[in-house]
Design brief:
heterodimer, A: 112 residues, 7-stranded mixed sheet, 4-stranded antiparallel sheet, 57% strand, B: mainly beta, 6-stranded mixed sheet, 5-stranded antiparallel sheet, globular
Chain lengths: 112, 110
């Protein structure tokens, strides 16, 4: 079983729709992250969380919100999707001992 | 200046060649460094961690130069399966965030 899972894996939606991407982990790590990746660009941090009561904005949080429902679950919402949010979205988790990040398989989101 | 900078490549090398990538970082407080491998449209996967001067794992060697603030990744005896994008990751001293380089693309040719 995968340590970090993301659902859905692919999603096509229309402009203005609300979309939720979900991330779950079985590694027991406290730190969870949401990134987006655009073709030819690096990973950009959207939000991160160190525990269920801790939510922090990353470099591109506008248009996104998150919810840390439990230690193992971290959801990303697009309140009103727009075409330039079309991207590959990755969830990642990290422990506090070695600070290594482990990524989920990604969600490919297309906003028409 | 970007937190982490990498040569985007692509590096086109024949099988069996030795190839090296460099990554420069701006935060002198960083204490640990990571190389990730990313295949097309897949998630990044941890390749190597560097906590001191360097690390070696089979054909892969990572070296850290704190004075010049760069880390390098050396791949010996390149395989076709090494073709991928290699991402350099540098957490700042407080580990709140992880700064990713934009990646170096490697193409290993037969």
């Amino acid at each position: 079983d995968a340590d970090v899972t993301q659902t859905p894996r692919n999603r096509i939606t229309k402009t203005g729709k609300r979309i939720m991407l979900e991330c779950s982990q079985t590694k027991g790590h406290d730190r969870m992250y949401w990134y987006r990746q655009d073709p030819g660009l690096g990973l950009r941090l959207i939000y991160y969380s160190f525990d269920v009561k801790d939510i922090n904005k990353g470099e591109i949080s506008d248009g996104y919100s998150v919810s840390r429902q439990a230690q193992a679950k971290f959801s990303l919402s697009l309140e009103s999707a727009i075409p330039n949010q079309t991207a590959l979205y990755f969830c990642a988790v990290a422990g506090t001992d070695r600070n290594e990040q482990f990524f989920g398989p990604g969600t490919r989101l297309t906003v028409l | 200046r970007k937190e982490v900078e990498q040569d985007p490549g692509p590096f086109n090398v024949p099988e069996g060649a030795t190839v090296a990538f460099n990554c420069t970082y701006s935060n002198s407080a960083s204490q640990s460094f990571f190389w990730y491998r990313q295949d097309c449209r897949k998630e990044p996967k941890l390749l190597m961690s560097v906590y001191s001067s360097g690390n070696e794992d089979g054909r892969f060697t990572a070296q850290l130069n704190r004075a010049s603030q760069y880390i390098s990744l050396l791949i010996r005896d390149s395989k076709l399966s090494d073709s991928a994008t290699y991402l350099c990751v540098v957490p700042p001293g407080n580990f709140n965030k992880f700064y990713f380089g934009s990646g170096t693309k490697l193409n290993v040719k037969p």
